[in-house]
UniProtKB/TrEMBL annotation:
The chain crosses the membrane at residues 32-51, 71-89, 110-136, 148-171, 178-199, 205-226, 246-266. It is a multi-pass membrane protein. Its main location: membrane. Residues 31-267 form the ABC transmembrane type-2 domain. It is found in: Cell membrane; Membrane. InterPro entries: ABC2_TM (IPR013525), ABC2_TM_bact-type (IPR047817), ABC_2_transport (IPR000412), Nod_factor_ABC_transporter (IPR051784). It comes from the Bacteria. It comes from Paractinoplanes globisporus. The lineage of its organism: Bacteria, Bacillati, Actinomycetota, Actinomycetes, Micromonosporales. Keywords: Antibiotic resistance, Cell membrane, Membrane, Transmembrane, Transmembrane helix, Transport. This is Transport permease protein. Belongs to the ABC-2 integral membrane protein family.
Length: 271
């Protein structure tokens, strides 16, 4: 008598199922939901209200510039911090160890996390865009600019997510994850033209350092999408540099993926 082989779920189906579970778990934590979406919007309201002057004769206000730039901050905080702290917590509380005994592969696990981050990032970006348009009169882009927004958003989200997973490897305890992960987040906002604009106010060497990381290119790209072409004069190269933006973000997607493969561990003992 022969026994029929049971086909195991594919990596894709496991990843989709894991993404659904991750999303439900997040939505059940009302505190996490409120602070994840409210904090970037609150910062935008504060910066936009305090710094509302216009840029010379462009007719663009500082609040509109912050509205565009803060989308990069929303993606970074949602993807990088949420992912890094989430993986660290899963490793510490034994979730990863239990999943290791199931058909779920590392790829399926990361896919599930990525689905969660994409959902959160879309919602985060939508909130910030609505605040910018409804409260600060940020211009509504045309169709061509929305296409740029699409690839810029996807590359930014994947790069930040991959880097968040990689950095989680150095987080020893989940309770310290927020403090560790927010240090590079806050530092990069100040040197990348998100909180300080025009970025040319910074020393040239600091702009060079910022150019090595994705946040400068993310914020610059989103300013291209939502601001008129006259605002490119306030960028470091006086150009939008979309081609270089795509290359840098693409490179960070590859770097983050490689780091994930090298550093990912199911348990602390695997290190």
């Amino acid at each position: 008598m022969t026994t029929a082989a049971v086909a195991l779920p594919s990596t894709v189906s496991n990843g989709l199922s894991r993404g659904w579970v991750e999303t439900l778990q997040f939505l059940r934590d009302r505190t996490a939901v409120i602070f994840t979406f409210a904090f970037p919007a609150m910062l935008l309201l504060l910066f936009g209200t305090i710094f509302g002057d216009s840029y010379d004769d462009t007719g663009v206000s500082a609040s509109q510039v912050y509205s565009a730039s803060m989308i990069a901050y929303g993606i970074l905080s949602t993807a990088f911090v949420t992912m890094g702290s989430g993986v660290a917590l899963d490793r510490e509380d034994g979730t990863l160890k239990r999943l290791h005994g199931t058909p779920i592969t590392p790829t399926a696990y990361v896919m599930g996390k990525l689905i969660l981050v994409l959902i959160l990032s879309v919602a985060e970006a939508a909130i910030l865009i609505l605040v910018g348009i409804l409260i600060f009169d940020m211009p509504v882009p045309d169709a061509a600019h929305w296409l740029t927004f699409a690839w810029l958003f996807l590359l930014s989200t994947f790069a930040c997510t991959a880097c968040g997973i990689a950095v989680s490897a150095i987080v020893k305890h989940a309770r310290t994850a927020g403090a560790i992960l927010n240090v590079p987040v806050v530092a990069l906002q100040f040197i990348s033209g998100v909180f300080i604009h025009p970025i040319t106010q910074l020393p040239s060497w600091l702009i060079t350092v910022a150019s090595l990381f994705p946040v400068k290119w993310m914020s610059q790209g989103f300013r291209y999408v939502f601001l008129p072409d006259s605002m490119k004069q306030y960028e470091a190269a006086s150009q939008w540099e979309l081609g270089r933006t795509a290359l840098v973000l693409g490179a960070w997607c590859v770097i983050g993926l490689v780091l994930c493969l090298v550093t990912f561990r199911w348990t602390e003992k695997d290190r």
